[in-house]
Design goal:
16% of the residues lie in helices and 44% in strands. By secondary structure, the chain is of the alpha+beta class. Helix 1 packs across helix 2.
C-alpha cells in the first residue's frame, strides 16, 4: 500500500510540472492523464520536460495503471477498470479493429461516462465543483480518430456537435463537424453573454437535424426562461 501511495505522489508531482489543461485541448498529455488527439500514448516529443522526467512519468503511470485490475465495464470499444487502492476509474477506448485510441484516469470527483451510438463513442469527463462544466471528447470507432475536448453542455447529432464558445466577452453558439471543422461550421453570435454556461437548461438538435433548440435563463432575471431555435442552412 505504501508503495502505491509513493507512486501516486510521484505522479502528482510530475503532473504539476506539466501544468493544468486549458479549456481548449492542446497536443500532449493533459493533467487528467488522458491523451489528446494527434498524440499517441507513448509519444513524449511534445512535452517540454527533460528525457529523465518523461521516462519517470511513463514508468510511474504504467505502474499506477497496473493497480486497476477489476473490470467494471467491458465493451467492444471501451474498458473501465477500478482499483482496490485508489478511488476512481481507469479507462481505455479502442477503434473497431482493436487499436487503442485513448486511455486515462478519472478520479472520484465530477461526472464520468463513456457511451456509444453507432460508431461514435462519447467520453464525458467531469471535474466536480460549482459551475465547473464537464469536458466531452468524441471518437469515431470506424475511422479510428478522436476529436479535441469540448466544454459542456453539448448536443450531438451523428458527427455534428453544438456547443458554446465562451472565450470572448460575448459567447457564441457553434455547430460544427466534430472531427473536421472544414467540413461543417456555423456560428451564432451576438445573443449570449459569457455566463451562458451557467444559465443553459437545454440544448438539442431537432429530429431531422436541421435546427438547434436551446432553453436558458435570462442573466438578470433567472425566472424568465428564454427558448430559441436556430436554423442550420
Amino acid at each position: 500500500m505504501k508503495k502505491y501511495i509513493c507512486l501516486l505522489l510521484v505522479l502528482l508531482c510530475f503532473l504539476s510540472l506539466v501544468g493544468c489543461k486549458s479549456d481548449r485541448a492542446v497536443d500532449g498529455i493533459s493533467s487528467d492523464n488522458s491523451f489528446e488527439s494527434n498524440t499517441t500514448p507513448n509519444d513524449t516529443s511534445k512535452i517540454n520536460v527533460s528525457e529523465a522526467q518523461k521516462d519517470a512519468y511513463f514508468n510511474t503511470f504504467e505502474n499506477f495503471e497496473r493497480t486497476f485490475t477489476t473490470v467494471r465495464v467491458n465493451e467492444k470499444n471501451f474498458l473501465i477498470k477500478t482499483s482496490a487502492d485508489f478511488a476512481g476509474d481507469f479507462y481505455e477506448i479502442y477503434d473497431n479493429n482493436g487499436n487503442l485510441l485513448d486511455k486515462g484516469f478519472h478520479g472520484w470527483r465530477g461526472s464520468f461516462d463513456i457511451t456509444k451510438e453507432n460508431d461514435i463513442i462519447t467520453l464525458e469527463y467531469g471535474y466536480g465543483g460549482t459551475n465547473v462544466h464537464p469536458k466531452f471528447r468524441l471518437y469515431d470507432a470506424q475511422k479510428g480518430i478522436a476529436s479535441r475536448y469540448f466544454e459542456g453542455p453539448i448536443a450531438v447529432n451523428g458527427t455534428l456537435i453544438a456547443y458554446f464558445d465562451v472565450s470572448n466577452e460575448e459567447a457564441s453558439l457553434i455547430v460544427q463537424d466534430v472531427f473536421d471543422v472544414e467540413k461543417n461550421y456555423k456560428e451564432f453570435s451576438g445573443k449570449f453573454d459569457r455566463f451562458i454556461l451557467m444559465k443553459i437548461q437545454e440544448i438539442s438538435f431537432c429530429e431531422d437535424g436541421t435546427k438547434i433548440h436551446i432553453k436558458y435563463c435570462e442573466t438578470n432575471n433567472e425566472s424568465n426562461i428564454i427558448e430559441e431555435t436556430f436554423i442550420l442552412d
